[in-house]
Amino acid sequence: MSEKIKFEMEFVIQSSPQMLYQYISTPSGLSEWFADNVNSRGEKFVFIWDGAEEDAKLLKKKSDEFARFAWDESEDNSYFEMRIIVDEITSDVSLFITDFAEESEMDEAKMLWDNQISDLKHILGSV
User: Fold this and answer.
1) Looking at residue 54, which CATH number applies to its domain?
2) Residues in the chain where the model's pLDDT stays below 50
């Protein structure tokens, strides 16, 4: 297994940080754009796509700022994080994604985030 490489992406989202936080940190919010369904029990989140389940642990979260998850099967220190950044001057809201992928899967991973965030923007009415 090759080593995963950290990558970051930034998306400008027209939404309040408070509303956006609900979509990145709660099972109901994540179910609307990230996965077909999401269930949680404490720190354990179960993401369901086309009937297949992936377990993740909520590592950290801070209200209206970020949520960080790690997939259960990851044996390295990789995680994925969704962080809300508000520009102090313009008040523009951005969603900053940090994730890890193997080099051979980097383009696919970035395309997946592009598609997921596009769905999120659509739900939020952010063009």
Assistant:
1) 3.30.530.20
2) none
